[in-house]
Amino acid sequence: MNYVFPPAPQASVAIQGSDERVPVRRIFCVGRNYAEHAREMGKDPDRDPPFFFTKPADAVVESGETVAYPPETENFHYEAELVVVIGTGGTNITEDRSLDHVWGYAVGNDLTRRDLQLKAREQGRPWDFGKAFDRSAVIGPIYPAAKIGHPDTGTIQLTVNGDVKQSADLADLIWSVPEIISILSHSMTLAPGDLIMTGTPAGVGQLQVGDVCVVSVDGLGAIETKIGPRES
């Protein structure tokens, strides 16, 4: 096949303990999936149907990399997340079979231009500029479900410069991983390489140049991101 210019490189994520990698197809994100975070964002945490937004595959950043403070924001936020990696595609997946489609899990950080997100929300517009910007999805090494099982409890925590900012339990998710997968699959066909960032606990806040942000989930290790100077 002839292209008028070279295709973009395939985005991918590391696998813990392996030199193989998982190709990233799409990144789905669940909004306000912890009750206390919903409240701090001024919303009711009742179990209304979950909503989703996306990030481009090439927004992926690996642990240990420096992320420049992004343009057009003065309110740059962290969001600790559990990431689900789809390994077997499907549509109209039932909850009781959802976990059969999971290849593994990872730690994530949904970086957010909060001022742009909130402005878009107030105007009834999409969140893309607040959520789907360059290098906005920090994803740690993937732990295969075949080795670790399917975590549904355990501490998820985020620190900035050693100070704890977010701390919760995976059991606090409003919508569980099986429910999220089933709901998504009834709207569109899931495929291998799709990632799902499952939502963040309460305690979101600002990052500044020079900050070091660490996110950890029990059984999945920790990821670290340093915030670099704003790009000129």
TrEMBL record:
Entry-linked Pfam families: FAA_hydrolase (PF01557)
Molecular function in Gene Ontology: acetylpyruvate hydrolase activity; isomerase activity; metal ion binding
Coiled coil segments of this chain: none
UniProt keyword Metal-binding, yes or no: yes
Example of a GO biological process term: carboxylic acid metabolic process
InterPro entries given in the database record: Fumarylacetoacetase-like_C (IPR011234), Fumarylacetoacetase_C_sf (IPR036663)
Fumarylacetoacetase-like C-terminal domain location: 27-227
UniProt keyword annotation of Amino-acid biosynthesis present: no
Alphabetical list of SUPFAM superfamilies matching this protein: FAH (SSF56529)
Superkingdom to which the source organism belongs: Bacteria
Keywords associated with the record: Hydrolase, Metal-binding, Plasmid, Pyruvate
Family of the protein in this entry: Belongs to the FAH family.
Name of this chain's protein: Fumarylpyruvate hydrolase
Organism of this sequence: Celeribacter indicus
